[in-house]
Amino acid sequence: MLLKIRNVFLSALFLVAVPAFAEERADQVAARVGDSEILESDVSFATSFLGDPNPKATPEARKSAVVDALIDLKVVSDAAIKDGLENDETFKRQMVFLRQQALRQAYLAKAAAAAVTEDALRKVYNERVAAMPSVEEVRVRHILLKDRAGAEAAMRDIAAGKSFEEVAGSVSLDETSKKSGGDLGFLTMEQLPPELGGAIVTMKTGEIAAKPVETPFGFHVVKLEERRKREPPAFEVVSTELRRGMEAQAVSKIVADLKAAARIEKLVPDVAMPEGSDDGHEHGAEGGE
User: Fold this and answer.
1) Are the C-beta atoms of residues 151 and 219 closer than 8 Å to each other?
2) Which of 8, 106, 176, 230 has the most CB atoms at less than 10 Å from its CB?
3) Which pairs from 163-170 meet CB under 8 Å and 24+ separation?
4) How big is the chain by its Cα radius of gyration, in Å?
5) DSSP state of 160
6) Are 282 and 271 in contact (CB under 8 A)?
């Protein structure tokens, strides 16, 4: 695992191409390589690129692996400098490319965050909630029996004074719901067998169906406990996913606006990628102009 985390770290760090040792040097030293120090701030900075390579690892193990990766990075990069690779033309071109990548990433992250404010996020949330169709949910209890005679016997027990929950717990064949007095929880009509849904449509809250309802599962004694309108998901539950989507849209617009304002001349044919590919660009007649 240690070798893997080192390789992942080195790849991620070079792709981002941001100086890893730009923090103030007033923090604690985590390691030394020759006369150079690897600081705690360097470790924290590098950790942000690694994610969580092993959820079972302790914080101490993760930190140790990052420090090992930084040691490898320092040792190998020092050797590269000593070997004169800083002056290699291929290396210089690579660094120009990586610098552009890092600048693009930093610029778009900053611009997208500025575009998707808390007010904008809540506005989109409220618009989507307002556009959601009203969905009724019903809370139903049932007692499932194999035949009509058994269901009618259960109904007589309830009429004689036993609670619905008590009878469900003792005779229902639905092993899951009988543990909660036959409670099926809140469901939409579409989630219920059509025979039950048809019976419930005209029932009042607290009412028990006048006769057993037959379905492919058997015969049901049915009680309607409650009706309600389905609540939309809370803002706090969906805000992260919503922000991610809005920022992606903002990035697309930002790039499109920048390209529209630039003088661009593409001198190769604009050939579309195979269907299902996603290279982050649109192709076609417009892209070839």
Assistant:
1) yes
2) 8
3) 164/208, 164/221, 164/223, 165/141, 167/143, 167/221, 168/141, 168/142, 168/143
4) 32
5) T
6) no
Tokens of 226: 């409650």
**Which tokens is 17 given?**
């191409």
pLDDT tens string 124-149: 999 999 999 889 999 999 999 999 99
Task: Name the token pair of 170.
Answer: 């003792």
C-alpha span between 9 and 43 (Å, rounded): 11
DSSP state of 86: G
Structure tokens of 150?
Answer: 């058994």
The residues facing 167 across adjacent strands are none
| pTM summary value | 0.58
Could you tell me if 192 and 222 are in contact, meaning their C-beta atoms sit under 8 angstroms apart? no
At residue 39, what is the residue type? L
* pLDDT tens, position by position, 48-85: 887 676 778 898 998 999 999 999 999 999 999 999 99
Q: Give kind and range of the element (H or E) at residue 185.
A: strand 183-187
Quote the number of domains for the chain: 3
Q: 280 lies in which domain range?
A: 118-126+233-288
| Same domain, residue pair 7 and 72 | yes
The token pair that represents 230 in the structure block: 């389905």
Residue 180: name the closest of 200, 163, 197 by CA. Answer: 163
